[in-house]
Amino acid sequence: MMNSSMASVKLICMCAIVALSTGNHESLPASSTANSVTGTTVTDRLSNTGAATESTKFSQTAQVTTNVIFPVLETNTTDKAVEAINEILSNSRFKTELASLFPLQSTTIPYPPFMQDSTRAIQNENEPHDYVCPKECDCWLLENPSRHISVLCAIQHIDNGTDFNVFNRTTFPSVLTLHCDPLTLMNSKLYPFMFKGLHSFIALTILNCHFNYVPEKAFYGMTALRELYISNAVNVTFHTAAFDNLPFLEDVSVVHSEMSYVPSLCHLQGLRLVNFTDNNISTLDETGLLCNTSFKNLQVIVLCKNNLRKIAINISDISANLLHFSASDNKIEHISEYSFWGLYSLSWLDIENNLITSFSTYVFQDVNDLKVLSFSRNRPSNFPSGLLSHLRNLTVLHLFDLSLNMSIFDEIRNFRNLQELVLKNNYIENIEMSSLNLFSLLEYFDISNNSIRTLTENIFMSLQNLEKLNISGNLIETLGKEAFSGLSKVDTLDLQYNKIRTLHRDCLQPLLALSVLNLSYNVIENLPSFQGLQNLFVLDLRHNNIKQLDSSTFAGASGIGGINLNNNRIRTIGAKTFRNLQNLALLFIGNNEVDFVENNAFGDLPIIELSLRNNSISDITFFRYSNFPHLRKLDLSDNNVELRISSDLFSTFQGIENLMISNNRIEEVSSRAFESLLNLRFLDLSYNKIKVLQRTALTTSSIFTSVKPFVKLQGNPFHCDCNMQWMKRWQSFPHANDMIITDLLTLTCTVLTGKNVSMLYKLATEDFLCQYKRDCNILKCSCCDVDACSCSYPCPDKCMCFYSSDRSVNSVQCEGKGFHQVPEVIPPAASHVYLDRNNISVVTIHSFTNMTDLEYLSMNDSNVHTIDDYAFATLSSLKTLHLNGNFISIITPKTFFGLKNLQQLSLSNNILTLMEAGSFSHFPAKYKLDLSRNVLSKVEAYVLYEMSFASSLNLSGNPWTCDCEFLVKFYNFTSSNVEKIKDFSVLTCTKNTTSPSNTTILLANILLSDLCLSNTVKLIDNITLVSTLTTLLGTLVIVVIIVFVIFWNRAFLKVWIYVKFGWRICNQEEDQADVYKPYDAFVSYSSKDDDYVVHELVQVLEKDLNYRLCVHYRDFPVGTSIADNILSSVESSKRVIVVLSKNFIESDWCHYEFQIAHQRLLAEKKNRIIMILLGDIDKSKLVPELKDYIQTNTYVNQDDTWFWEKIQYAMP
Q1: Where do the TIR domain residues begin and end (predicted)?
Q2: Runs of H (alpha helix) within 235-358
Q3: Best label site of 255, 492, 994, 1004, fewest CB within 10 Å?
Q4: pLDDT tens, 1068-1104?
């Protein structure tokens, strides 16, 4: 086997190698160092792109699809068993190490430190003492093969401010990699002389720096430069002299940079390598390589992924010593007969994936030393006989996707040195033993996706060195006993996507080195013997017709690490089936018909991932008989699991990270069912039959870790009763040891009070209720178990009663029950009472006694005629009262007396004719009032005044009179409250007229001068009286102006008097309780204003004026919720200083702080808020409470010259 590694060769050349940087990571040349931006090494990135250290495109084009055998391998895991499977799969992708076929010696540029054991960071006195490593860079000393410094700098971008002079002092040979941030929006720019001090640097790599021009003398001063690598520039162009003054330059690579033209490189006679992959070059004239004299040392030309359409010149005119030429993935239609003549040393030729339709028989006549050849994926109309016959030194030959038939074997019959042969995706129908007799050195053979029907006995007998064989995608139905005779070195065999039904029991016995076997996507019913296959590690049996597994199925293959049996017809898993597989790490038996698993079926196997998804398993108690110390992922989705998930079911799974039990029939999850799963990261309980989920069911032990598990719950028929109320509050106030519900916004549920399915997050807290027959709060009542308990109240007959888990909601629903009076036994703790559609004609003073917790009362359509005085007097907590659709005609000040917290009153569709003054005087400001569809024609002026305090009004549907005496007042009222009156557009008044039509007028269209002409005349008649009063009014105005000036400047005068004489004029007295409050003021501000608050406001008030302040960053206790901290801080402070700014307006928590302080102001009827205006603000964006406060109270501008005096005056 070829054991040479590409580590001995510079990272060159083939499109596959260069193309590594087209993915998510940039591929660095060998001179590169660790990527400090991503935290990965070059080795990591090569493996991430599937290239590994071999990194050859030829090996990539013939991969076995074992990388999808076990999808779990894509996850990051450090388990040794999984790493071993990863290694096996990586080595099974039919890659041939071609380094030994490519004689180019390694360059002077050493390897990055993470690729060598002999490299280390510069750290002691034995290192170059004059070397300064910038803080943006990492520097290493590379000691093999010679001492060099490798420097990697992670920067945002390059511009004229980027200083490379820090390296001026060093004379130590160095290599430099500049890695710009690929996500930055700023383009880079190169400048002349920017690297002028880097005399000792022998290599320069520039990655992801989006510059578009390389000016003259950009590299001036880098006289020792040998290698230049540029990747991911943008539409880059070069000054014609960009590469001057670089006498030792050997390697030039410009890749993925949208380059369409290269200036002449003819003066660089030391040039060894040119790599222009993935650009826009359309002709060889644009490569800068067509000179009067050829390059003597040029060995590698890579032009992959460009727009070349033909090769019409003799490549030897560029360099007769060329070793490697790659022009794959272009649009080449024609190659001249003499294009490769004279290239006697050429060993690597890649013209794959072009549009070539024909080849001259003599095109390869001078490349007799060619070792690697691919012209796959072209469009030749025929394959000329003798085209390849003289290429006897070929070791790698790729001829796939060329519509070839069996005659190709006659063309290559005598290629005795062949080690890698790829003939996939052709029309080959048969392989004859004589065709393979001379391929004794062949190590890798891919003849997949052809039309082969039969493998004759001993067909591969001569391929004694073969290691990887791919015959997938053919039409093979039977494998005989000697089908693989002679293949004792084969470690990877791919037979997937055939039609194999019958296998001789001993057909695999000759494969003594077999490590990876893929028999997926066939129709196999009975498996062959694996006896003697001690090296077998990965076994893929997906998509077959296997029905039975027994204790002998895997006998003799105890080394197996992974088995995939998905999509078969297995019904039973016995206790002895996998007993002897002591290395088994991955086991997939999904999409089968399994309905029974014996106890101890998995024993003490070291399984890391187990999939039993999409079977018919109903009982999973067998897990109690298995020990899974290494299990990380268990998939039981899409089964018939019915039992309750108890806390001991998965007690042996302490290492599990992913647990999937979705699409089952689980109805209950017990409390703390998953608490023992210390490493749990993801739990899927979606699409089960769970109706109620206790919060403690999702409690985990993750409180001791920094990562909380994620859980999916969607698709369950949740019943949102009081036991589910926690889920409504979870998003805002999750517990420290709760899981994170990833799909909370998609969860649906039904509620007791409705039949429709609702989105859970849209439900109100009062919707999460449990029904009860008797209300007795055990926290407040000690006799709940006694029948005659005085604090236990039954639900009224005919009614339904519900409460929430925290008893904040207690709902009594008695709609449509035919009551003639309010039930006498309504529980006093009721918060919501529904009495709609009854026949309660009178609401008496005794109807709602002792119901101090009632917040919501609805008596719509209940035939109410009369409401006794003080009927609602005891309902001090009532916020909403609905009395729509009744026969109420009169409201007096005693009707709603006591409703001091009422926020909404609905009296629509009654027969109201009179509302006395004071009817709404008991209500707080900003209540909602609906008086629509009554028979009101006019109301007193004072009632209009009371209604002006409402935040929302509905007044339409009443026969309001157009009489001028009332209309003037009503018109002024409605005009001043248009925004509050929701139905203003349809609000009308009625004229007193005998006309049968046109008596109703829209208020919005009324002109008072037209309707109230007589009043206007009276005003004119009284003008004389007005003039008589003018003198008196003039005197009064002067007095008013003087008083107004004093009043307008009263705040300033108070401060001035305080500063001058120390007197506080008309200042509120301090409460006695304030003496014991620890803080003088709590400062409410946005964290974005930290700079002003912390360094100026707090400094002056505490240091200079000796006040004690409460501020977030210092005084909030850890572990207490933010809301509790705010409430406690306001209560503990004598004043609240609000720093009002743009940032404050945009902060929800700041609004909350103000509301707490404002509520305290209203409750105590004292202004304790000191408002500081910081900068300009948009008052239209203020919340209503804040806007009202500013309009009615004084605030202090931060730039006020008397700022500190006013603040000091307002402080206690």
Answers
A1: 1077-1211
A2: none
A3: 994
A4: 555 565 766 888 898 988 888 888 888 888 888 888 8
283-289 contacts, C-beta under 8 A, 24 or more apart:
283/308, 283/309, 284/308, 284/311, 284/313, 284/318, 286/260, 286/261, 286/262, 287/262, 288/262, 288/263, 288/264, 289/262, 289/265, 289/318
**Helix, strand, coil tally for the chain in percent (to 5):** 20, 15, 65
Residues 954 and 1077 reside in one and the same domain: no
Q: Render pLDDT for 514-538 as a digit per residue (tens, 0 to 9).
A: 999 999 999 999 999 999 999 999 9
Of 729, 726, 721, nearest in space to 697 by CA: 726
The string of pLDDT tens digits covering residues 75-115 is: 333 354 455 555 444 443 333 332 222 222 223 333 333 32
Give pLDDT tens digits for 688-731.
Answer: 999 999 888 888 775 556 678 899 999 999 998 888 888 887 76
Q: Which of 982, 1000, 1019 is the last residue of a domain?
A: 1019
Query: Which long-range CB contacts under 8 A does 1182-1185 form with residues at least 24 apart?
Result: 1182/1145, 1183/1151, 1183/1154, 1184/926, 1185/1154, 1185/1155, 1185/1158
Burial (Cβ within 10 Å: 0-12, 13-18, ≥19) of residue 755: exposed
Distance of CA 173 to the CA centre of its chain: 45
How many other C-beta atoms can be found within 10 angstroms of the C-beta atom of residue 872?
26
Which residue reads 């004609």 in tokens?
841
Q: Are residues 592 and 680 in the same domain?
A: no
Claim to verify: residue 1000 and residue 1042 sit in the same structural domain: no
Please state which of the ranges 32-46, 47-61, 495-509 shows the lowest mean pLDDT.
32-46
Residue 448 confidence (pLDDT): 97
CATH number at residue 1103: 3.40.50.10140
How many Å apart are CA 800 and CA 827, to the nearest integer?
Answer: 12
**Location of structure tokens 């999939």:** 611
CA–CA separation, 844 and 860 (whole Å) = 17
Closest CA to 1181 of 1150, 1135, 1137, 1212: 1150
| DSSP letter (8 states) at residue 481 | T
Whole-angstrom distance, CA of residue 577 vs CA of residue 564: 14
Q: Are residues 698 and 654 in the same domain?
A: yes
Q: Do residue 52 and residue 107 come from a single domain?
A: yes
The residue behind tokens 């015959």 is 471
Is 634 part of a structural domain of the chain? no
From first CA to last CA, the distance across the chain in angstroms is 90
Final residue belonging to a domain, choices 258, 277, 308: 258
Q: What are the residue ranges of helices labelled H in 33-79?
A: 42-48, 57-60
> Shortest CA distance to 1133 belongs to which of 1161, 1152, 1113, 1105?
1161
Q: Are residues 697 and 613 in the same domain?
A: no
pLDDT (average), residues 402-421:
91
Contact between 958 and 983 under an 8 Å Cβ cutoff? The reply is no
For 1014, the domain range is 888-1019
> Which of the four pLDDT bands, split at 50, 70 and 90, describes residue 489?
very high
For residue 647, what is the domain's CATH number?
3.80.10.10
Q: Are 206 and 231 in contact (CB under 8 A)?
A: yes
User: Does 1097 lie in the same domain as 1011?
Assistant: no
Alpha carbon of 1172 to those of 467, 1133, 1139, 1176: distances in Å?
80, 17, 5, 12
- Residue 588 pLDDT greater than 50, yes or no: yes
- Show the tokens assigned to 749: 């549920």
CA 157 centroid distance within chain? 27
DSSP string computed for 324-382: EEE--SS---EE-TTTTTT-TT--EEE--SS------TTTTTT-TT--EEE--S---SS
Question: Which pLDDT score is estimated for 1031?
Answer: 58
The tally of domains found in the chain comes to 6
Residues 105 and 217 in one domain: yes
CB proximity list for 473: less than 8 A, separation 6 or greater:
424, 448, 449, 450, 496, 497, 498
